[in-house]
Queue: 2 jobs
Job 1
Amino acid sequence: MKYWVSLHQQVLLLFFVLLPAFLFAEEPPLLKLRSSRHPEFVRIVLEGPETVILKGTVTQKGKDISVNFQDSKFSLQDVELPFPYNTVKNSVVFSPGEFKKFKSAFLQSPARLVIDVYQELKAEEVKAITPAKPLKTKTIIIDPGHGGHEYGLIMGSYREKDVVLDIAKTLRTLAGKGSTRCFLTRSGDQFMSLGERADFSNNKKGEIFLSLHIGKHKDIVIYTPVITEPAPAGVEPPGQAGFLAKTLAFKNAMLKAIREDLGSDMVSVKPLPYSILSGIEAAALIIELPSFKDVSYNSDFKRELSNTILKGIYMYEVVTAN
């Protein structure tokens, strides 16, 4: 016996066969997009799943910069950039207009494709981007962690004591201009106790103290001091006790700078009792940078970190100006 299926029944059958595909189809991953202006370039950051980001191929087409993700489907976060952009099939096309060159690099944890576009900026644009120089802060103390027989974390050719010293020296060059004095607690590979570092900062009458370390985590951790012993009545509070308000403002400024430059999920804040910070008579923080496993500490990334920290110092000056 033959059974004939009507056209109406065929349509219904097809509907119920295809319905699960529509209901359970995975949405394409979202790529986050952000940008930041620097004196010499505009930085574009595309962030998303590693399986998509690592497929990104950056090419120049006339006055456009195209990022092709091959066969990967994605959705793109809609944000405002300094210049137009649009998606074309599996590509994102940026249209910055006239530019001299661009550089691109992949960063991990989270996976990011970073593109620096070197534009021909007008003098007034450069002035608007470049923070006022010199800094208003008179004395800044940068504390590269470890040194001497204390190597800190080690992975391959990386040693924590060497990497944080490199970043500290770059930061000293950037910040120590005009009348601002920027001192390093150690300028070479020597051991210093925590007490010696605190005494160095206080004797120099530092207004900002920043200790640099590298951790075992994917993000940047900002550590803040915790006062465990109140000062006796009638006695001037020692160490950090009289500077907590300034330290809080410094923390908020540094947090904002890192979020803007590196992403909101690239930084966290933790209190740290019984640390060197408690004895520092200044706005004081410890910044623990991502692990050697999660980022590559090449010269470009170390320079990027230095610029971001400097940006945090400028932001701190702005909020404490009044």
Job 2
Amino acid sequence: MKIRLILLLLLLACLTPCAALAAEQDEPTIYVVKQGDTLWGLSERFIKDPRYWPGMWSKNSQITNPHLIYPGQKVRVFPDRLEFLPKEQASSGGQKAAPAAKTSEAMAEVAAERTYAVHGKEGFLMESDVKPAGSVIGVHNGRIIAGDDDIVYTDIGRELGVKGGEKFSIYRKDAAVSHPATNQVMGTKMVPLGTLQLTDLEKSSSRAILTRTFQEVTPGAQLFPLRDDKRREVSLKMPGRDMKGYIIESYSGSSIISSGDIVYLDLGTRQGAEAGNMLYIIRDVTLDKKFTEGRIDRLPQELIGALVILETGTNTSMAVIVKSIDALYKGDRIVSITK
């Protein structure tokens, strides 16, 4: 009997360190959310799978918007999953933070604020209430094409209150853009060509020099007060209200859109859109009626991508696709909060 008791005690003594080791291995790292963090970024960095985050959002009821996580929120980081601590547990300190050794350089990288670049060559949609300042009416020596440092003539003169030395942005008027759902004309796509500087002014005309060109400039090109054509960064910003809309066109005109592409939306300042807002691209799942027998009217929507607004007009805006899980198209719907 004594021998059996001794063997049992020895067995328990051997198992205890193993159980403690297993518990230590299962102990999660506690990560504190910092400015600029997104669920997509956290999933990509810690789980190595950016597509994990929609599921993580659906399992965390305290996260009402998939990208709106706030500085100070705490996340349990496991090898295979992330868990947001409930507010009461996060505030009460119910979970002890992991040792500093577990907060690796990867965490520091995630904590960096994420920004998106505007290069100044993306163009814009000219809405009906926007009018150009003038146009290029000719090229020096009767040529029809001009480039860097060439002389051109404009219909902008002193009567408009301009002065010598003023600069203007040059655009080519492209096709009208119609709304994919209503067919309403939302604006005209304007393609950036470069910049010019006025040199000699008459009452209603002027001579100018092309200071920078992205594409060839021809008579008829439209002039606008100088738009910022220098690279600048746009930081993520929480939408001020719920928004729903559509991708109405791509800058390239391509029918298939993917990550990195510039697109135009039917959301502007009038609808509450601001530069830095991240919106989500969704698509309905088509039902095969012969299998539903009238019991189901719709399926959960697919979350297929995300975009960030770079510039806004009154009723339209320009955005960059930052993630695409599937091929995207003109007419795909966008929302500020996924359901």
